[in-house]
Amino acid sequence: MKLPNKIISYKESVLSRFPLVLSVLSDNPMNVYELFELTKDSFTDVEEFMDTLECLYALKKVTFDDESGVLFYAV
């Protein structure tokens, strides 16, 4: 997981991807694959995308419905 420090700038960190992911999810809930397809140009790889989702989930900014497999923006 890339977090900002002396070597990694904010723009290169996963924190800079938070607004992008949250803005897409604020429009409508979607599954992880759909979200990745819409935002993949902003990530270097799938691992960076998943790190971003893990951080947002840990911060309780997104929720995941196990039954439907859908991510929601948690207000």
Descriptive report:
The protein is an alpha+beta fold and 75 residues long. The chain has helices at 18-27, 32-39, 46-58; strands spanning 30-31, 62-65, 70-73. A hairpin with a 4-residue loop joins strand 2 and strand 3 (70-73). The longest helix has 13 residues, at 46-58. The radius of gyration is 12 Å and the shape is globular. The relative contact order is 0.19.
- Rg (CA only): 12 Å
Q: H/E order of the elements?
A: HEHHEE
Shape: globular
- Strand fraction band? 5-15%
Q: Count of DSSP helices?
A: 3
Structural class label: alpha+beta
Number of strands: 3
Kindly, what is the distance between the CA atoms of the first and last residues, rounded to a whole number of angstroms?
Answer: 25 Å
Features:
75 residues; alpha+beta; three-stranded antiparallel sheet; 3 helices; globular
In short:
This protein has helices at residues 18-27, 32-39, 46-58; strands spanning 30-31, 62-65, 70-73. By secondary structure, it is an alpha+beta fold.
Give a topology summary:
Blueprint: H1 18-27, E1 30-31, H2 32-39, H3 46-58, E2 62-65, E3 70-73
Antiparallel strand pairs: 1-3, 2-3
